[in-house]
Specification:
Blueprint lengths: L8 E7 L5 H15 L6 E7 L11 H9 L13 H6 L2 E4 L2 H10 L2 H4 L2 E3 L7
Parallel strand pairs: 1-2, 1-3, 3-4
Length: about 120
């Protein structure tokens, strides 16, 4: 019996309030890894910079448009926690303002985990 375990890569998507962009990114990424049979290799979550929408579902329009495209966007909003910087391997923010705010909250070694979503776009 093989007892070797594979470490899961932990990815956190961040936007301002965690009701539109980051839950959408979370759902799209989750569907992609599920479709490839890689769900056991990743832990995916999303959070917001602020706590304005904590506990709420994503924006109704986001859920409806996502559902039309086959995405289940049902994450409950939460605010980023200090422990997230240690727990997650990669923190992907949705824009430059998010990047500035999140890296300012992180210790220097944790700030290296923060990446902009736009860094993954190709022409």
């Amino acid at each position: 019996m093989n007892t070797k375990t594979t470490a899961r890569t932990k990815i956190l998507f961040i936007c301002l309030g965690n009701i539109c962009r980051s839950p959408a990114a979370h759902a799209v990424f989750q569907k992609a890894i599920d479709a490839r049979g890689l769900s056991d290799r990743f832990e995916v979550d999303s959070a917001g910079i602020g706590n304005w929408h904590e506990g709420e579902l994503p924006d109704r329009r986001m859920r409806e448009h996502g559902a039309r495209r086959g995405y289940q966007i049902d994450h409950r909003a939460r605010q980023i926690r200090p422990s997230d910087f240690k727990h997650f391997d990669r923190i992907v923010v949705m824009d430059d303002d998010n990047y500035r705010i999140i890296t300012a909250k992180a210790a220097p070694e944790e700030a290296r985990k923060v990446e902009r979503m736009a860094d993954f776009f190709t022409a």
